[in-house]
TrEMBL record:
Cofactor(s) the protein needs: Fe(2+)
GO molecular function: broad specificity oxidative DNA demethylase activity; class I DNA-(apurinic or apyrimidinic site) endonuclease activity; DNA N6-methyladenine demethylase activity; ferrous iron binding; oxidative RNA demethylase activity
The protein's Enzyme Commission number: 1.14.11.33, 1.14.11.51, 4.2.99.18
Organism: Oreochromis niloticus
Subcellular localization: Nucleus
Binding site for Fe cation: H216, D218, H272
Lineage, top ranks: Eukaryota, Metazoa, Chordata, Craniata, Vertebrata
SUPFAM superfamilies per the UniProt record, alphabetical: Clavaminate synthase-like
Protein name per UniProt: Nucleic acid dioxygenase ALKBH1
Catalyses which reaction(s): an N(6)-methyl-2'-deoxyadenosine in DNA + 2-oxoglutarate + O2 = a 2'-deoxyadenosine in DNA + formaldehyde + succinate + CO2; N(1)-methyladenosine(58) in tRNA + 2-oxoglutarate + O2 = adenosine(58) in tRNA + formaldehyde + succinate + CO2; an N(1)-methyladenosine in tRNA + 2-oxoglutarate + O2 = an adenosine in tRNA + formaldehyde + succinate + CO2; 5-methylcytidine(34) in mitochondrial tRNA(Met) + 2 2-oxoglutarate + 2 O2 = 5-formylcytidine(34) in mitochondrial tRNA(Met) + 2 succinate + 2 CO2 + H2O
Pfam families: 2OG-FeII_Oxy_2
Main subcellular localisation: nucleus
Fe2OG dioxygenase domain ranges (all copies): 197-297
Alphabetized InterPro entries for the sequence: Alkb, AlkB-like, AlkB-like_sf, Oxoglu/Fe-dep_dioxygenase_dom
Subunit structure: Monomer. Interacts with DNAJB6.
Length: 342
């Protein structure tokens, strides 16, 4: 536990809540010196290197979904949290815009379900991107009173659609899981020692610069032996990883665009939260330019083999896309949508 966090909590209280509030605070802004930045750190007492199964994914397979060869990935674990793996941006330069586009433009489309469907007809929510892009292009987006549909998008569910009221998944609410995202997930999990992963459910979280995600455990999935994945694109965020009890003080870490987290084994059911969104450091902007800026050749993607009974929940995170999106999609500047999580 970080020094400051340790000094803030006393035995028996809800240590997670206290630290969550500390990092969410606006005035004065919190001291971030205890927040782990895996993109700048070296293994030490708290951070341990993780060996990946490099042979489980060929370079060609990795490239097809926009990933570097697995042997190039920087993967870390946290002492005391076996099964938690943090992969510091394994994406090839210039491939993140493809995934951002999928999250903003494609995955919100039917048959997937989003928060706007709760009070709008399927016709009205069918093309969220198309209906928003014109307004977003016109400058001063933040000053407009009426927000576009894209700015009001909070979540999209994929595959087995999560029911937020009953906190369950049901076979009666299922649509095909996006093949490209499944393939990306299957390669990441294979490299982490989980061959044959079938992505059955996904939740995309769309964050604004003032958003947070409350303290929770993802326990609705049927098979907790299957890992849970998180992909982040866009702005950065502080992620808190706690223990199995609310009294366990969490570890704070930065998630930057392109970072991937795997929660598996003893870390699959730990408390976690996102108390704060932060501007991306310039070198971690999702929409980085580069000669690899073309999207991966999705037409050549192949579906995963072998069916699993377990329900994996795939979480993907995307932040604020700005110029990257402009470049990829022709949309105008938009500064409020901050981070997406799938
Ligand atoms: O946005 C994230 O990285 C975390 C998302 C998450 O924990 C969830 O949706 O359950
Ligand atoms: Mn979660």
């Amino acid at each position: 536990m970080a020094k400051m966090a340790a000094s803030m909590v006393e035995g028996g209280e809800d240590a997670f809540r206290k630290i969550f509030k500390f990092y969410r605070r606006r005035n004065p802004p919190p001291d971030l010196s205890d927040v782990i930045d895996f993109s700048r750190c070296a293994p030490g007492e708290q951070i341990i290197p993780v060996n990946l199964a490099a042979a489980a994914v060929s370079d060609v397979e990795a490239t097809r979904v926009g990933l570097q060869p697995v042997r190039e990935w920087q993967a870390f674990g946290l002492r005391g949290h076996p099964g938690f793996i943090f992969i510091s941006n394994p994406f090839l330069r210039g491939t993140q815009p493809f995934w951002l586009r999928q999250c903003l433009k494609i995955y919100p489309q039917k048959p997937n379900i989003c928060n706007l469907d709760m009070h709008m007809s399927p016709l009205e929510t069918q093309d969220i991107w198309g209906q928003s892009v014109h307004s977003l292009r016109s400058s001063q987006a933040g000053k407009r009173e009426a927000r576009t549909l894209l700015e009001r998008l909070r979540w999209v569910t994929l595959g087995y659609h999560y029911n937020w009221d009953t906190k369950t998944y049901s076979p009666s609410s299922h649509t095909p899981f996006p093949r490209d995202l499944h393939l990306l997930s299957a390669h990441v999990t294979a490299a982490c020692g989980f061959p044959g992963f079938i992505s059955e459910a996904g939740i995309l979280n769309y964050y604004r610069s003032d958003s947070s995600l409350g303290i929770h455990v993802d326990e609705s999935e049927l098979d907790h032996t299957r890992p849970l994945l998180s992909f982040s694109f866009g702005q950065s965020a502080i992620f808190l990883l706690g223990g199995p009890r609310r009294q366990d003080p969490p570890t704070a870490m930065l998630m930057h665009s392109g970072d991937v987290m795997v929660m598996s084994g003893p870390s699959r059911l730990l408390y976690h939260a996102v108390p704060r969104i932060l501007p991306a450091p310039p070198e971690r902007l999702a929409l980085e330019t580069g000669d690899a800026s073309r999207p991966p050749p999705t037409g050549r993607l192949r579906g995963g083999a072998g069916v699993r009974g377990g329900m994996g929940r795939l979480l993907q995170v995307h932040p604020e896309l700005q110029s990257e999106c402009d470049r990829q999609t022709g949309a105008g500047a938009w500064t409020e949508i901050s981070r997406n999580s799938l």
